[in-house]
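Listing 4. Sequential folding, example run.
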Amino acid sequence: MKTVSTLKEIRALVDRWHRNGKTVGLVPTMGALHEGHLHLVRAARQACDRVVVSLFVNPTQFSAGEDFAKYPRDLKKDTRLVAAEKADVIFAPTAEEMYPAGFDTSVTVGPALTQTMCGLSRPNHFQGVATVVMKLLNLMRPQQAFFGQKDYQQTLVVKRIAADLNTGCDIVVLPTVREADGLAKSSRNAYLSEEERRLAPSVYQALKLADGILQVGERNPKELLDAVRKRLKTESKIEIEYVAAKNAETLEDLLILSGRVLVAVAVKLGSTRLIDNIVVDVPTGS
């Protein structure tokens, strides 16, 4: 396995693979790798001839006052983990390499997918995500790119740019990988204090409650969301940012809970923002 840090290097390497008829899988990450990321690398390794893992803390998807400066970075550890999964290349560029002097282009996805849920509190986030992902797809022209369901809204944004901008890339979304107590694995879990870590599984417990409510026949979104909020509020240290029940394909609000239903939550626990979600197939007209 090798590590490259320039656009010229990664383009030359991937161009050679394409000329030789190799399929390319891309796993975009911001580093601070955990089992959720490694699950994506394994899936890419199984599906594709060559695998690139990008490690880039993308400044354009952080808003003012967010944790860009303190976001965990450990290239040596990440390299060791990726090598153990037999990826072919790590792409670890600098911000200056990705956004050189004079860079003045961005990719914007329409408001239906970006001006709801996380987009309400992070107004520039999805523009930053869409721009960096499009740059990576243009650089490597992968046949497949692999993402985790935990960042569900992000996966819809990425699918939209991949389709609308004719990348030819299949966006593969894999289930959220969780700790034994249900907490979704996330690089930001490292920020949690011991007490906050003990409380954090309440987020997934609230989502499981929502699943149970749907399974017994509740179809009123207000009743469902009120129940989830009530469960979260049993922990006084959890601050709710949003609880949402949406059409899982379009993020439209639902008058009646039916079809593929996304139930998504964002909370603050201390200074740490946690997100999680489930998707439930609810029979239409039941």
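-- end of first protein; second protein begins --
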Amino acid sequence: MLEVKNIVKKYGNNLAVNDLSFTVANGEIFGLLGENGAGKTTTFRIIMGLLEPNAGEVLLDGEKIDYSKSDSIGFVTEERSLLTKLTVQEQIEFYGTLKGLEKKEIDKLLDKWLEKFEITSYKNRKIKELSKGNQQKVQFISAVIHHPKLLILDEPFTGLDPINVKLLKEAIIELKNEGCSIIFSSHQMEYIEDFCEKLIILVKGKAILDGNLQEIKESYAKKNILIKGDIDIDELKSIDGVLSIDKEKGEYVVKIADISIAKKVFAKIKDKNITKYDVVEPSLNEIFIESVGGIHE
């Protein structure tokens, strides 16, 4: 289990991380969200032991993270950090050796991962000869070749097409099921919704939203109503509490201030030709924008 306890990090007068606390259990995927400059990278560096916080502490399985624990952590960065003149095998052997693995074990694990990612024929190709998507796969392999207890994923799907996103998702779920604690950061909120049960949203280093994703959605007052059929848009807009009406993918999305407005909307359309009426929770993207909007200025 990862425990982040009341960490604070200052750069001069700039408070980069402000009394941040959270836990990530074994076999849990945790979302760490925020705009650029919100403090995510600093938090990652503190967790990995690359930076010392001004206050607070970070524990992995009850012990302080230092260089002796670095072999227990894997990190996939948004920017690729590969040695492009090496072959895939040379690259992974290099990283695996740094993590304390023997060459024979590294090569056995590499073959497994190359088969999983459907790139066995690239084993002896130089990194610079690979597509961006396949380079991203190699970067992921380099981060997990040593079976980390903690894996940090910062925009891991960058450069991947839908097929390769699916392969990487399956690999992440497999690691989760094996008990790996995973911190997931992405600006693509649909990935967070796919993976994370718990999350934190950071603004200027401080958590402004923290908790179980489903509970956050349920407690969020604003809801959406999805409607298919013939409706009078102006009539619905006249209802106090209807915030907006948009048409997306052949259906109307009616945003309402709270759940009580749904009855008023239904009363207006119940006698019309309606094939769909569904009250749904807002997307994480909507909640993120609502939570962050105005605070970061």
